[in-house]
Amino acid sequence: MSGLVEINFDGIVGPSHNYAGLSLGNIASASHKGDTSYPRAAALQGLAKMRSNMALGLAQGFLLPLPRPNGDLIRGLALDETAPRQLLAAAWSASSMWTANAATVSPAPDTADGRCHLTPANLVTMPHRAQEWQDTQAQLAIAFGDEQHFTIHDAVLPAFGDEGAANHMRFCENHDSAGVEVFVWGRQGGRFPARQHEQASRAIARLHGLDPAKCVFIEQNPEAIEAGAFHNDVVSVANERVLFTHERAFADQQGAYAAIREAFPALEVVEVPESAVTLEEAIRTYLFNAQLLTLPSGEMALVVPSECQESASVWAYCESMLAGNGPIRKVIPVDVKQSMANGGGPACLRLRVVADPATVDGRFLLDEMRAERIESVVAQMWPEQIDPMDIGSETLAKAVIEAREALLSVLSLDELA
């Protein structure tokens, strides 16, 4: 379809960004519980990544922090000094910055009605995230409000957990051509919760009007979940014809490749063997929680966290990959250490939407003017640091609320206040 391009919508890190360790199964989040966070630095790191991608010639959008502290959650749970502190921290969580969990997106070429469909993730497995979807939906409804080109659904009913695009991949010859959508789900009953339920994935495929012959449903490797791959995008990432994956990503690795190849014969697999990079090291460095992007030149680039460059085994693999003749021709490290410490790399921070930019509300598309406005507000109003014991402070709450309102104002998005 003419005019369709892939736009990455990154989450702006919110002013309440903190390390409360709320995410069971997320090893980075748990290991940094209680640390001092730096919201201003976190937001500026995220913006630098967005600017870097714009400099590569790529379309870049953003989504805004949700209102925090969440008064509805505080009132709904009657939170007071007798309540567990983790519940209070949930009401302050800035986890909506990881927009890979905002929604599952099926581009127009894949759907029966020729519109792009978005279903907000219900995120029911984690209390601090289950509060997000209605506010996320309200934002999506503005950004993608052109009903001729987009359909925004309600979240899947909470009987089944859905964590959005972090467990969804799409294969296609080009972003604007019809593709095959792959949904990765986890089996319940392990030490850590499997957050993506098979029936949630199947419901989304039906809601979006996808051709069943162009959908593939794959079980994530329980060993990967146990090792800390709480979403599939911690062990796999796809772009156009290419699947970049660890050899222990799926419960039946060869069966997964065969199922995708049956629906999409052009599949190219770049598999990282355990002998080169262990599953544990891949998760620690978030090698696969990367952005696999097609540059204007046609080359593919992998945007990885700088932790990959600091790992001898991971960086040696990247160098050997580039020395070969595979489809990934560039590896670009970026500093997102504040996000990484809470368990989110470059892929967590973005939602991929294939659309004509002219059909998107321009207030959500990044350009130099908006980037400067966002940076100015962040530099002036985002807290420099937050200690987890600051959570609940009226002074901090006032500062966080005012910071977000200032951002909405400079972006002319006051309807989200």
General description of the model:
The structure is a single chain. By secondary structure, the chain is of the alpha/beta class. The chain has a domain at 5-212 and 336-416: 5-stranded Propeller (L-arginine/glycine Amidinotransferase, Chain A), CATH 3.75.10. 32% of the residues lie in helices and 18% in strands. It has 14 helices and 15 strands. The protein has helices at residues 27-31, 39-55, 71-76, 85-92, 127-130, 133-143, 198-207, 222-227, 253-263, 279-285, 312-323, 337-340, 368-381, 394-410, and strands at residues 5-11, 59-63, 103-106, 116-120, 150-152, 168-171, 180-185, 215-219, 236-239, 242-246, 268-272, 291-294, 300-305, 328-334, 350-355. The strands form five sheets. It has a three-stranded mixed beta sheet with strand order 2-1-15, covered by helices on one side. The protein has a three-stranded mixed beta sheet with strand order 3-4-5. Helix 13 packs antiparallel against helix 14. The radius of gyration is 20 Å and the shape is globular. The protein starts with a strand and ends in a 7-residue tail after the last helix.
